[in-house]
Amino acid sequence: MSAGTYNFTIEQGTTFSRVLTLQENGSAMNLTGYSIASQMRSTHDSSSIVATFTGTVSNASSGQITLSLSNSITSGIEEAMYVYDVEITSGAGTVTRILQGTITVTPEVTR
User: Fold this and answer.
1) What gap in Å lies between CA 51 and CA 20, rounded to an integer?
2) I need a labelling partner for 42 at 20 to 30 A (CA). Which of 19, 49, 101, 106 fits?
3) What is the assigned CATH class of domain 4-106?
4) How far apart are CA 13 and CA 81, in angstroms?
5) pLDDT tens digit string along 11-51?
6) Pairwise CA distance, residues 47 & 45, whole Å
C-alpha cells in the first residue's frame, strides 16, 4: 500500500484532532494490535521534531485512527509550513507509512 498525501492547516493555539479511516482494497482495514506514530518537522531531513502527534486506534474494526495535538502544543509551533507522515506498526512489528504531506500553521491572535 502506498502512502496517501493529505495537506492540512493547524491553527496555532487550538486543539487539533483528526479522525482518519484506513481502507485496504475498498474495505476498512482491521487495526487490532496496531500502534500509530506521527511527527512533524520543518523539512524531511531535519533532525529536530516540531511536534509529535498523539496517535490512537479509535475503532480498530472500522479502521479508524485519531491524530491529535493539545492547544498548549500548537501554541508553541511557529507560523510556517512543515512536513509530516503517519506510520502504523502491526503487532508483528511491520511498519507501514500510510499518510504524508504538508502542514501549514497559521498564527494565533488571541492569547
Assistant:
1) 19
2) 19
3) mainly beta
4) 16
5) 999 999 999 999 988 999 999 999 999 999 999 999 999 99
6) 6
C-alpha cell at 84: 509530516
3-state secondary structure of 77: coil
Note the pLDDT tens digit of each residue in 51-109: 999 999 999 999 999 999 999 999 999 999 999 999 999 999 999 999 999 999 999 99
- Residue 103, number of CB atoms within 10 A of its CB: 20
Please state the separation of Cα 92 from the chain's center in Å: 22
H-helix or E-strand containing 73?
helix 71-74
- Alpha carbon separation from 14 to 5, 39, 52, 61, 82 (Å, rounded): 23, 18, 16, 30, 17
